[in-house]
TrEMBL record, chains A, B:
<dbReference type="GO" id="GO:0004069">
    <property type="term" value="F:L-aspartate:2-oxoglutarate aminotransferase activity"/>
</dbReference>
<dbReference type="InterPro" id="IPR015424">
    <property type="entry name" value="PyrdxlP-dep_Trfase"/>
</dbReference>
<feature type="domain" description="Aminotransferase class I/classII large">
    <location>
        <begin position="69"/>
        <end position="394"/>
    </location>
</feature>
<dbReference type="InterPro" id="IPR004839">
    <property type="entry name" value="Aminotransferase_I/II_large"/>
</dbReference>
<keyword id="KW-0032">Aminotransferase</keyword>
<comment type="similarity">
    <text>Belongs to the class-I pyridoxal-phosphate-dependent aminotransferase family.</text>
</comment>
<protein>
    <recommendedName>
        <fullName>aspartate transaminase</fullName>
        <ecNumber>2.6.1.1</ecNumber>
    </recommendedName>
</protein>
<dbReference type="GO" id="GO:0030170">
    <property type="term" value="F:pyridoxal phosphate binding"/>
</dbReference>
<dbReference type="InterPro" id="IPR050596">
    <property type="entry name" value="AspAT/PAT-like"/>
</dbReference>
<keyword id="KW-0663">Pyridoxal phosphate</keyword>
<keyword id="KW-0808">Transferase</keyword>
<dbReference type="GO" id="GO:0006520">
    <property type="term" value="P:amino acid metabolic process"/>
</dbReference>
<dbReference type="Pfam" id="PF00155">
    <property type="entry name" value="Aminotran_1_2"/>
</dbReference>
<dbReference type="InterPro" id="IPR015421">
    <property type="entry name" value="PyrdxlP-dep_Trfase_major"/>
</dbReference>
<dbReference type="InterPro" id="IPR015422">
    <property type="entry name" value="PyrdxlP-dep_Trfase_small"/>
</dbReference>
Length: 404, 404
C-alpha cells in the first residue's frame, strides 16, 4: 500500500450520508430475518428539503444574481463585497460581537467548504488537533488528510443539563501536551448537545491561555428548541486570538442545493482560507451567493414556524424510541437524534444495511462519528412528520426482530 | 516563520485574476508617467460573460433543477447519476473514446475543483510532478500545497507549427528521474498552444512506458480556431493507465457563475477524487448541476458563432500588438493571448498595476504562469470586441510611455 493508498483508505466515504447508493449489498440476503416492510422510504441521512422547503425568495434571489451577470459570476474569492457587508452585519447581531465584512468573513461552497478551508489553514504535518467524540465525521478525516494527529476529547451527551458537555480535564491535558487546534460543533452533530455557557467560557479561557486555535462549527445554532439557550464563543470576553466560527444556510434554511457557507473570525486565518480557496474551487458559485440575501433575513415568523415543526417531530420520535426502551438523548437544537441500539444478532453496520433493504429507511452508522459510538445510529429528523414517525416505528420493529 | 506560514506564503493570490481589488496601490503615484486614459474599463483577467452570455437555457435548467427539489439538492458526491449519464455520452463522443458514467466521471465545483481533486488524489509529500512552464498558475501551487516537488518542463510557444510544444527530452528526463505525475493544459493557458498529434502521441508513449499518471486540462478544447486540429490524449491507443481529463463549461460556454467542471478517466482515481470531494465541499451545488443539461448540447450553430466572434477579436488584437512591434503568439484555441513586454522603466508587476490605475485595464502578470515569463502579460480576450480593441490600444500607448 502506497502513502496515497493509505491516505485515501482513511477517507472511505461509503457510509457517508448520501453515498449509500454505492454500497455492495449482495450477501445481505443470507442474514435477513423476515420480509420487507411497506411504507414511504425515508432517508434520515440528510434533511428533506421537499418537506421543509428552502427559504422563501431564495430561487428569486438566485435569478436576480444571474441577471446581474459578470459582476456576480466573478466575485472576489472570499465572496461578493456587497453580500459580505449584509451578511457580516447580520452575523454580528446574531452572535453578539462585531465583524468586519472586509477582513473577517469568507463565503464558501457550503459549511463543508468552510471546515475544509479552516482546517487546511491551521493543520499541517504533525499538528495535534483536539477532536471531540462523537462529532461531525469529517472533522477527523480532515485532520488526517492534512497530516495532523487527532487528540480525542470525550463528550458526555446522555445526561441531564450540566452533566452534558466536553471533558474539560481531557481538553486541558490535550492543550498542555502540545495540541494547537481544537475543532468542535455546537449544537453537537450527531447528539444535539448545546455547549453550556460554562463550558464555552472554560473553552475560551483554556484556548486563550494555551494559545490554541479554535474552529467552532455552529451550523445548527439557529434551530434552538424551547427553553434552550445558546452561547457564542466569539462573544466571550476571553475568546481566543485565533478563532474561526462556521455557519451556513444548508440545514435549518434548507439551502443545501446552493452549497453556501460562511466562516468568520481572525483576519489572518480568513486570509489564509481565501488563498486556499483560490486553488480549491475559486469561490462559492457566484449566482448562488446572491441567495444569501435571504439568510438571517427571513420573513417574520418563518423561523419560529420552522423550529416548531422540528420540535414536534423531535418530541414524537424521542417518545417512540423511549417507549420501546431505546436509549436516546433529547437534542437541544438541530435536527439530529442519536439513539443507541441494544445488542443485536448482526453487526451495527449490517443492521444499517438491513434497515435500508427491508424497511426503506436510511440512517448513518454511529461509527462515522467516533470509534466508540458504533452501536448508535444518527437520524436527521428534518423530514415529513408522518413519514418520519412511520419510519421510526419500522426501525423499532427491526430492532425487535434482530435483538440478540 | 512556521511551516504553515511558509505553506501559505507560497499560495499568495494577490495577482490572481479577480483578486486585484485587494492590492495596496498606494505608492504608485511616485512612478506614474502622464495622466489617466479615458475609455471603458476592461478586465482581461477573466472573460466577460455579459459580452458573451451563458449558454441559452442554462438559467431555465437551473430553475428546473430547483423545482426537482431534494433529489437534485442531495446528489451523490460525484454528481447526479442521470446527469452523469448524459454528459458521459457527450464527452465520449467529443473525445472519441468510451466513458462509463458510473465509474469514470465526477462532476466538480468548476474545473478548478477538478484540478484540486485530481492533484490531491495523486500527489503527497515528496511526489515529483512534471509541470509545464508556462502553464495555468494553480498547477504549481497545488503541487506545492500537497507537498509535492515541481519538476519544470519547458514549453515552446513563439514558433511556427511543429516548433511549438513541450520539450520532450526534458519530459523523458523527468520521467526517468522518478517523476510520477504530469499535469498540463492543452490548449495551453496562457499561450493558446494546442499540443500537436505528435506531441500527444509522444506523451502517451512516455507516460505509459514510465508508469506516469497524467492529468490533462482540456478546458478550452472546444474553442478551436479555423484550420486547427485537436488531439485527445485519452483516445490514444497508448494512453497511460492512470489518466484524468478535465473540462467544464466555465469559459467558452460562459457558465462560470455556476461553478461546474468535470473530471473523467481512470476509475480508481475518480473514486479517490470523490472521497476527497466528500471532505472538501461534498458536491458541485445540486441545482447548478442541472445546467449541465445544456452543455455539449447547445443549439445548432451556437458554438460556431461563439468561435467566430472570438476569432475576430483574436485576429484584431494580435494585429494591433504586432503592428506596435510587440511579440505575441497567435493562439490556436481558447481566449488567451500572452504578449511579451519590451524593456520598461518599471518592473512588469508595477506596469500591470499602472495599467489598471491609468488605463482602466486589468491583465494578469506573466510571473503567475512561470518564473521565466515575468515579462509577459496574459489577456483573456473573451470581451466586448470594441472595448477590447480600445483597451489594447491603451496598453500599447502605456508600453510606449514606459519604454526603457
Amino acid at each position: 500500500m502506497t502513502a496515497l493508498d493509505q491516505k485515501f483508505a482513511a477517507l472511505a466515504a461509503d457510509n457517508a450520508p448520501g453515498q449509500e447508493v454505492r454500497q455492495d449489498m449482495s450477501g445481505l440476503d443470507a442474514v435477513m430475518k423476515g420480509g420487507l416492510f411497506n411504507g414511504t422510504p425515508v432517508d434520515f441521512s440528510h434533511g428533506d428539503v421537499d418537506a421543509h422547503p428552502p427559504t422563501p425568495g431564495s430561487a428569486e434571489a438566485w435569478q436576480a444574481g444571474f441577471e446581474v451577470g459578470g459582476q456576480q459570476a466573478y466575485t472576489e474569492y472570499r465572496g461578493a463585497a456587497a453580500i459580505r457587508e449584509k451578511v457580516a452585519a447580520r452575523l454580528a447581531e446574531f452572535t453578539g460581537h462585531p465583524l468586519s465584512a472586509d477582513s473577517e468573513l469568507i463565503i464558501t461552497p457550503g459549511t463543508q467548504g468552510a471546515l475544509f478551508l479552516a482546517l487546511g489553514a491551521t493543520v499541517t504535518n504533525g499538528t495535534k488537533v483536539a477532536v471531540v467524540e462523537p462529532d461531525y465525521f469529517a472533522n477527523r478525516k480532515l485532520v488526517v488528510f492534512f497530516g495532523g494527529e487527532v487528540v480525542p476529547v470525550a463528550l458526555t451527551y446522555g445526561g441531564q443539563g450540566s452533566d452534558n458537555g466536553p471533558d474539560l480535564a481531557q481538553l486541558e491535558a490535550a492543550f498542555k501536551s502540545g495540541t494547537e487546534v481544537l475543532v468542535f460543533s455546537t449544537p453537537n452533530n450527531p447528539t444535539g448537545v448545546v455547549y453550556s455557557a460554562q463550558d464555552i467560557a472554560a473553552i475560551a479561557r483554556l484556548a486563550s491561555s494555551y494559545g490554541v486555535t479554535v474552529i467552532v462549527d455552529q451550523l445548527y445554532s439557529r434551530l434552538l428548541y424551547t427553553g434552550e439557550s445558546y452561547t457564542h464563543l466569539r462573544a466571550d470576553p476571553q475568546a481566543p486570538g485565533n478563532l474561526i466560527t462556521i455557519m451556513g444556510p444548508s440545514k435549518t434554511e434548507s439551502l443545501s442545493g446552493f452549497r453556501l457557507g460562511v466562516a468568520f473570525g481572525t483576519a489572518a486565518l480568513i486570509e489564509r482560507m481565501e488563498r486556499l480557496q483560490a486553488i480549491v474551487s475559486l469561490r462559492a458559485a457566484g449566482y448562488n451567493q446572491a441567495a444569501l440575501e435571504t439568510w438571517l433575513n427571513e420573513p417574520e415568523g418563518w423561523m419560529d414556524a420552522r423550529i416548531a415543526a422540528h420540535q414536534a417531530i423531535r418530541d414524537e420520535l424521542v417518545s417512540l424510541f423511549r417507549a420501546a426502551g431505546i436509549e436516546v438523548a433529547v437534542p437541544q437544537a438541530g435536527s439530529y437524534v442519536f439513539p443507541k441500539l441494544p445488542d443485536l444478532s448482526v453487526s451495527p453496520e449490517v443492521f444499517v444495511q438491513l434497515l435500508r433493504r427491508q424497511a426503506a429507511v436510511t440512517v448513518t452508522p454511529g461509527s462515522e462519528f467516533a470509534p466508540g459510538t458504533r452501536d448508535s445510529i444518527r437520524l436527521n429528523f428534518s423530514q415529513d412528520h408522518e413519514a418520519a414517525v412511520a419510519a421510526v416505528k419500522r426501525i423499532i420493529e427491526m430492532i425487535e426482530r434482530y435483538k440478540a
